[in-house]
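> forwarded from #structure-qc
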């Protein structure tokens, strides 16, 4: 590796942008560095489904032109970013990890992609994911699983496993994921990177291939909280293309990072430390609590009493919404099509061949739960429990500024461990799904390693639209620790 390559691999997103603006290296050199890294590692890790080599180099050349002619540069000028394959990119294949969309090339950019490009960021490729974002391991992808760069016999988490692996393995300095029940935070935890799920309504989902529309969020996966703040600043804010987008101002998330956390009340949630939590994770979280207390945070005990109902509530609502959202994939418009003797047979054969097993399972569960006679017992009931879960947060966040706990009950599991038992996989989402049900922001930051050498993540959850507080605490924690700077050797 050349000196330049070594240097680029160590830089934060903000530093990359700064070096390019100052002409220390060009956007083309930087993009080429990451394309080379992808070239070396992607066959093995399978982190990217599509590499945007030519397009990325063209965009980089355009940035270099701006630098040379001393034109005004965007806040992310020259910064490579990998985008989850469930997010539309104009002219660049977007499959959502599904055979159904294997050859789908969107005619437009998702709002967040447009904003990133307008800010000068360079889309370097599309990352692997569980089909339609349904899963926690990236094993449900039609192109096969992504491997965890820390130990390749383990999963990277999911469904944004490709995005997390890209950042962990230095195939991209930043990435974008989506999070319906933990899909940014859980892979961030498993791969030792920082992952932020913003408040519902904070970041536009226009152009995100919908899974569960009342639960879907888009957010960054980065090497640090400071980098997450930089990306969030660009992608956040109202968008008239998304009817659920909040009309709330979102400023510069980087400004509050350095403010002291002295006196900030951090609630440690009782229900997050019960049976099922691996002792290694518990120890790492206790140590993280000590670090934050040393920085002046006030640690208090708090409770989210309905935690045990979060997983069943989430899976009922997510499956119901998925069954409705995925009805559009019928072989008539932009999808894969199987032949049939008549229209109905064509629909059936297309959906039978186009969807994988997990997606079919969820469509059937959701269709069942929404059918007349069962609607009240499942969907309506789950919606009521969801309301109570939201109230738990309202109460808890009255007496503390944020809630701290583990992101996941265990570190990454072995490939294949849960593929025969989907229920076991669902149950491991216990700490992440509540934030989606309540719509509150949550971040996962690296806070240690298991004995097997796999990363551990700490989750911070906050009040609606208080991403700044989460980023500030995460950043202060990262000023004191170096877990987020460790890199895998693979
Ligand atoms: N693991 C959860 C699921 O399988 C969450 C997925 C997600 O956030 N997209 O539904």
């Amino acid at each position: 590796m050349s000196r330049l390559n070594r240097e680029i691999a160590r830089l934060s997103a903000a530093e990359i942008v700064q070096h390019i603006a100052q002409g220390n290296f060009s956007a083309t050199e930087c993009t080429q560095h990451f394309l080379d890294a992808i070239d070396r590692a992607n066959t093995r890790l399978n982190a990217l489904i599509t590499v945007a080599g030519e397009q990325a180099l063209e965009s980089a050349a355009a940035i270099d032109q701006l630098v040379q002619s001393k034109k005004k540069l965007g806040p992310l000028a020259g910064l490579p970013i990998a985008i989850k394959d469930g997010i539309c990119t104009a002219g660049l294949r977007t499959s959502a990890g599904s055979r159904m969309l294997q050859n789908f090339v969107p005619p437009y950019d998702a709002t967040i992609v447009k904003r990133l490009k307008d800010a000068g960021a360079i889309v370097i490729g599309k990352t692997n994911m569980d089909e339609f974002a349904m899963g926690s391991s990236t094993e449900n992808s039609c192109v096969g699983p992504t491997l965890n760069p820390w130990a390749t016999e383990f999963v990277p988490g999911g469904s944004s496993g490709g995005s997390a692996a890209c950042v962990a393995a230095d195939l991209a300095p930043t990435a974008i994921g989506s999070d319906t029940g933990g899909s940014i935070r859980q892979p961030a935890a498993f791969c030792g990177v920082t992952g932020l799920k913003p408040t519902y309504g904070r970041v536009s989902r226009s152009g995100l291939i919908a899974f569960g529309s009342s639960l879907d969020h888009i957010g960054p996966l980065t090497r640090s909280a400071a980098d997450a703040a930089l990306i969030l600043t660009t992608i956040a804010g109202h968008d008239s293309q998304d009817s659920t987008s909040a009309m709330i101002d979102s400023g510069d998330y980087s400004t509050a990072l350095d403010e002291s956390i002295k006196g900030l009340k951090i609630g440690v949630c009782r229900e997050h430390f019960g049976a099922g939590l691996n002792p290694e994770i518990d120890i790492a979280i206790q140590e993280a609590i000590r670090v934050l207390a040393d920085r002046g945070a006030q640690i208090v005990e708090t409770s989210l009493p309905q935690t045990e109902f979060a997983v069943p509530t989430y899976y009922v609502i997510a499956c119901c919404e998925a069954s409705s959202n995925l009805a559009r994939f019928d072989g008539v418009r932009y999808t894969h099509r199987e032949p049939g003797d008549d229209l109905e047979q064509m629909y059936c054969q297309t959906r039978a061949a186009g969807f994988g097993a997990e997606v079919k399972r969820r469509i059937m569960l959701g269709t069942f739960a929404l059918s007349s006679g069962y609607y009240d017992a499942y969907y309506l009931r789950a919606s009521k429990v969801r309301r109570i879960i939201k109230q738990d947060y309202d109460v808890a966040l009255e007496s503390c500024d944020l809630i701290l706990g583990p992101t996941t009950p265990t570190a990454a599991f072995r490939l294949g461990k849960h593929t025969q038992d989907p229920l076991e996989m669902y149950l491991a989402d216990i700490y992440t799904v509540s934030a989606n049900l309540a719509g509150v922001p949550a971040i996962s930051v690296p806070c240690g390693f298991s004995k097997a050498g796999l990363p551990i993540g700490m989750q911070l959850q906050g009040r609606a639209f208080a991403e700044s507080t989460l980023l500030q605490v995460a950043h202060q924690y990262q000023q004191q620790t170096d877990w987020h700077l460790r890199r895998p050797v693979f």
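QC bot note: The chain has a mean pLDDT of 97. DSSP finds 16 helices and eleven strands in the chain.
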